[in-house]
Protein 1
Amino acid sequence: MSLDLYAINKETYRQEFQKLANQYGLPEWVKTVEDVDTFLNSVDNSWFQEKAQALGIKGFTIQKGTFCDENHNITAGENLEEKINYLVSDAEHNTDAKRFHIFLGRFRSMREALAKMFNANYYYAKYNDLGPDLNSYSFMGSNQWTSNNKFDKTLCDFFMHSDCDGTFSEEQIKNLNYVFEKANIREKEKKNADITRFCDFLNQSSQKPIYWRFEG
């Protein structure tokens, strides 16, 4: 298994999202994943049927957003609700985002090596049945990391982040780059190819209005 870390330009994403939102005729207040979900829960079958006609989708709805032909065969690829549900993901991928690709085992090893640079031991524990939570990642060492100051919070934000989903904000990226540069991580770990690649990716991301999307 592997991790793809996408650096998504916020300005380009907004443009791509708006194009898709306009295509499906979504109201102006729909901006986020949560907004999309709220909107889809607020409309009924008649909205999908009307939208399908405008988009040239043939057939009729057998359930919310799913279309079939006269023989009740689902029209290939025409689940309108599902398409709209993936609006945010599609808009992100349309931005031609830069990508940091790494196998999950190597990403965990990389974070373990980076933690030692901050005088801490870091280890990964398997997710419980409820998914990732704060108990999935543990820290031990002379540095007792807390969220009491910006430096420690920045490290916690990175080391305790899921390695398979979620986002990392523009502010978090800039803060992490500042901490890494202050600690001279890239120079000290220049023989570690994964760390130098990550530091370059981080530094480049910090120079633009970028956020990261984790996909594992």
Protein 2
Amino acid sequence: MTVPVLMLLLLGLPAAGGAVASRCARSLPPAVATVLLTIFAVSAAVGTLAALALVGYVGTVDLLPALHPADWSASEIAAALPVPVAAGAGVLAVALTGRGLLGLARTLRSDRAVVATVAGLAAAGDLVVLPDPGILAYAVPARGGRIVVSAGMLRALSGPQRRALLVHERAHLVHHHHRYLRLGYLAAMLNPLLGPVERAVDHAVERWADDAAVRAVGDRAVVAQAIGVAAVAGSSRRGGTTLAAGRGDVVARVRDLLDGPPRRPASDALLVVATVLSWAVVALLVVHTHGLIETAELSGS
């Protein structure tokens, strides 16, 4: 029963990480939180999928003998790895792979659509101003990076608030935040239990850009006001290319700007432990499965 126990532990780690992810996104320095959360999401997603695929392949030797080496003993493997467990792991691996490919296709399709739209707009440097009375502002990491702002947004903000907004959006481009968001999104598509971690990455990225705006403007209240106006836009796209100041939990971001983020060192440590455990469990599973294969080969020869 070692393999089933390890599989349950591996599936439980994403849920455990998700339980503390939002706290880490608020309490850690935003750049550190973004990197750590992304590493955890990718580790948990890839590790879980690899383990499911490995168990599904090895444990189905009795069901699909043509796909396995002839010298493997089906009875030896079935004794340590029940066929229903292996078959379930295999089916789940295929389903999660399909979700991941669907997420990748959505991201690529969104990228192409946004790039095509921005390509047709006149820009002054990296800034594109749309003659739109609505509230709209976002960054597009394409064609060298573009910041798209509506005329209505610019009119709604004061001079310092406009500067804060533009610095915020430019920080997304400079620090390549879209890469973290894409990895978080794809990880959540590969493993739905990582949904809270994806949202935490989004929040940490926005805090990162907020901090850049605070350093440039020197007034946290001005940045908070600019974020509040941008939040009206609702222009964020899940898993897509654009990065808008109004993404994430705006209320929490404004509270952290005005009052300072809470400190929760225990949550931070738990996320690090969960990341390390994800790799450790995968390593144990691979080692145990390898030993099982060697035993099956000896019994089958």
